[in-house]
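Propose amino acids for all 361 sites.
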């Protein structure tokens, strides 16, 4: 806490009280419930869970309410709370091929087993304000397809892989480092990079992905498959000797197929970019897969064109919005001593310049 002048603590208490009043707003308007936020602002809840690294919709809704809708502040609250939770164990890798999908589209194959499932998407809306939403109590038609009807759907890229047209994607047996418990070290493994990107700020990752599409990253990507749905989470129980399901979570997964002319170490083939994010967060998942592919230039034997999205240090060290916010916003807090020293230095330099000018005259 900064208490730079006498009475600072009282001022801070008053600021907190004023913040609480502003957060509540007009008392004549009904207060938002956590259930309303969770159900009707679900995409905001999903982003807070993803970038906060904690899958709990109720806590994410609480953080959004407490932060007055400032999602980065809500992510900060979730991460801070997460540090207080005990680590009981680790789940086994989720099987996204067995996802009960509510949305599954491919830009590479029109006809595929399981079909194209548009699901809940803004893609085909007209982007016009719907004033009917201002009238409460509208009746909604139920969707025709339930998620349970579309379980255990194979990945599209497997069709290319059978013909050897896309790079192999073997599952590593090595336990990846945990970014939430260990500081990042560069160069980072792909697993660590993916952790950093999925926790990274959506806007930053989106901008990096967009830069690769404009030529700053040597990627030309197709969405091999984008899928959203529920997957089971299983955990090994030593006393039982096998894994048991402990729950399920909603995930968005994107795998891109990228042009690759080959290099000194790899033959011509398609290459992969990958994104996996909590909740329905497809913009982030697609952007993540583009940035992932761009950062893989070294392992694929490509040349580095100097693009920002190919610079591991630049991307990974600037993607985290909590670190960025902390460093940015600390400059508004008292720096009186630092500024006074700078002020004295500038005065001294000005005096020396003026003295030199007068002597020259």
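Proposal:
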């Amino acid at each position: 806490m900064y208490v730079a002048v006498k009475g600072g603590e009282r001022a801070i208490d008053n600021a907190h009280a004023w913040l609480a009043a502003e957060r509540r707003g007009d008392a004549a308007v009904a207060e938002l419930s956590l259930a309303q936020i969770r159900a009707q602002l679900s995409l905001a809840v999903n982003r807070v869970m993803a970038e906060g690294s904690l899958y709990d919709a109720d806590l994410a809704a609480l953080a959004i309410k407490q932060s007055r809708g400032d999602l980065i502040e809500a992510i900060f609250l979730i991460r801070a709370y997460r540090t207080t939770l005990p680590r009981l164990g680790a789940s086994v890798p989720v099987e996204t091929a067995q996802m009960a999908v509510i949305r599954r589209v491919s830009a590479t194959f029109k006809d595929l087993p399981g079909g194209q499932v548009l699901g809940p998407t803004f893609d085909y809306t007209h982007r016009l304000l719907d004033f009917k939403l201002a009238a409460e109590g509208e009746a909604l038609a139920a969707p025709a397809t339930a998620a349970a009807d579309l379980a255990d759907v194979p990945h599209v890229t497997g069709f290319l892989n059978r013909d050897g047209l896309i790079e192999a994607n073997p599952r590593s047996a090595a336990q990846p480092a945990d970014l939430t418990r260990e500081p990042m070290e560069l160069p980072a493994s792909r697993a660590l990079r993916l952790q950093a990107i999925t926790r990274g700020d959506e806007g930053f990752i989106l901008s990096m992905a967009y830069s690769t599409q404009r030529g700053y990253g040597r990627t030309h990507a197709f969405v091999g498959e984008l899928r959203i749905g529920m997957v089971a989470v299983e955990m090994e129980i030593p006393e039982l000797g096998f894994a048991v399901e402990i729950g399920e979570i909603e995930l968005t997964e994107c795998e891109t197929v990228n042009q690759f002319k080959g290099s000194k170490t790899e033959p011509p083939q398609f290459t992969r970019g990958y994104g996996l994010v909590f909740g329905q967060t497809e913009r982030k998942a697609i952007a993540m897969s583009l940035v992932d592919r761009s950062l893989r230039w070294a392992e694929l034997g490509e040349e580095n064109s100097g693009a920002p999205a190919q610079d591991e240090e630049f991307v990974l060290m600037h993607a985290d919005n909590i670190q960025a916010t902390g460093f940015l916003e600390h400059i508004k807090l008292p720096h009186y001593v630092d500024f006074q020293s700078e002020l004295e230095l500038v005065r001294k330099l000005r005096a020396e310049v003026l003295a030199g000018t007068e002597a020259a005259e």
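The longest strand covers residues 221-237. The two ends are 52 Å apart (CA to CA).
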